[in-house]
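Researcher: Structure prediction, please.
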Amino acid sequence: MKFFAAYPSSPDHISISIEEAEKANSSHLQFSTWRSTFGAGRLIDQSVLPEIAKADGLICDISIPNENVFFEIGFAIGKMKPIIPIINISMMDAGEYLRKVGLLDNVGQIRYENSADLVYQLQSHAVGRPIFAEPNFEISNQPLLVLDSLRRNEFSTKLISAVKELAKFYRTVDPQEEYRLSTRSAWELVNESSAVVVSVYDTTRTDYLLHNIRAAFLAGLTIGLDKECVILVDPNANKPLDFIDVCRTIKHPDDIRDAVSDLVPKLYQQQLGGTEKRRTKNRRLISQVSVGSNAAENEMRDLEDYFVETHHFKNALEGRGRLVVGRKGAGKTAIFWRVRDISRRKNSELVLDLKPDGYQLRKFKEQLVTLLADGTKEHTLTAFWEYIVYCEIVHKILESDYKRLYGRNPRLTPILDDLSELRSVLFEAREGDFSERMMGLIKDINDKFYMRHGTDGSTALQTSEVTELLYATDIHKIQNAVLSYLETRDRTLLLVDNIDKGWGAHGVDRDDVLIVSTLIDALRKVERKAAKSRANLGWLLFLRNDVFELLVDQQNDRGKDGKIVVDWDSEAALQQVIEERIRSSTLARTGKAAGWADISIPTIDGMGSIAWLTKRSLMRPRYLIQLVDECIGHADVCGHERIEVEDLRAGFRNFSQDVIGNTSFEMRDIYPSSEDAIYALIGLGRKTTLGTVKGTLTKEGYGDHLDKIVDLFFWFAVLGASSPNGEEKYIYDYRYDQKLISKMRARADGDDEEIFINHAFAEGLDCVDLI
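Model: Predicted structure follows.
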């Protein structure tokens, strides 16, 4: 067999080891390097991919993060080539970054010290099959895939805004939601897409190195699968040689719209032509099963087919509360999309879905909130939000109703005329989606303030000044025009999500909470004024429950707005999520609905196989979907007819490693001193004591932060406690009530307290389970 080798040109001891191994290698597994293959006068960037395409597979050195190497790996996987990752362990921290990025960290690797060691290990290496089975995916109803950034900057904000406007339906790889990108997730997302857009950042951007690794891998995979790929590059970024000719340099964020615009026609051509030929490649039932995406944003057009209507969804749909509260991954966003889509079916209802992003809200805080005088902040921010809400209602009315009703309804036509005049004043030259319109308004206020007062920070804005800078026209005129129109609708519904996206539970300051509380006050105010005008207006605000608790603690009128808690205390309800997704996908692809019993062995370790997985899912839909998907994928690539015991165990281990990595990064964002503390639990007994955990943390250098880190372990359900009757209990068993689990633990005997490491983490941490 003849493989091709992908490796970085520096440091020298990696490239020299591989090139010397090429010369000395006499095993069954031969390989060539780019240095020996491409002589003088050949364009390396145009020659590498053809060499990989004709090779039997790819040997790839992933000791250090390198964009060219990951681009070539993605391309090889797309071309269904076996890959052999290798790591030079003579390097300090070789391969450690894989734990953070997720890609290839659970793919078997050869770990070598020098050229002779590499040759020796290749001689006994059995070449496996490609790591994934032949693609058998239908193109998603959201056919464009976009790589988002960890910190939403001007570049990524413009990109997402352009995609929303031009492509409409898209999915994202969002490091804020899941920092680690698993190889399987990347494979599935790209296969279900018609086109992919990635960005390459320069060294000044947060997380640029791992972001660019994700971008390179996704781009290589996309091109390997013969799909459209757009690579947008910061002007000062290093353009990797392998794909330098397909990069599009973005000199100004406004240029992004043109790049997306050029892609859209190709996007839908591929979608129209790409579905049917994918359906018939593999007839095994396991290959026809899909459980969808574990992120609701990436499946909003398909949710209707398999959404499980829980009591908390029905409460939200029927307006039995105002605040929808739940943990990350509990299904809040799925409820957001379903409530929106069902409500929009009625032409007599006006529905607004507002999703500000983290970058926008940080700018809001930096550029406006910090300028306000302390005594006027609450009143002024409420006025700001009220103005934003009315502006967005004006925008929505004219966007959804103007063409449909203008000139056809004598009563509404003059009101629409008034609203049309208002829009030209309210939005001036501001375009784009809600995020861009809000950012434009903040920038206008900021610019006017600095023009008037300078930039020395000695002047604080008073309420009267903000309203003068804010209101382009009389607020009462806006209110009257909007409410006159809303009186004619059966109902107006405002849905607000993402307000706390990217916030750490213990990193939220007073101004963050004030931003949320004043938004709530503004929504209440608009609702009251609508009621006085006999207009039916309701609203739902979606919040993480930790942020909600902070909000309640700092408000005097706690409980004023009804709370709808999204939690999953029923294993049967969670399992129904999986059953519905299996039923929907098999019915669509085979014409016959199947269930879990048709695709999996019935039991493992003396319990039902789906119950076994549910107990390891942290009782969240997102995690159970991811876990089941890992098991299905392993069974498929191994050629099994159904999920076997080995598939359950292998899928669970891959899932556990992902959950550990993502939880570690969430903990770091909340409390930086806790970074990697979760790995201190490696090798402990799954049933242990608080003193043992504290001792291990102290030994690993976390002694000054013990109480905080232990609290976070319980909050993230890494650790559980023993209930009064001796049962193993986690925070989700108490509806995420931290006070309740703390009270229960308070009866325990200090460091002798008996605690448990959750199955979801224990597997990947190699904890010894003697329970």
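Model: The first strand starts at residue 2 and ends at 6.
Researcher: Thanks, that helps.
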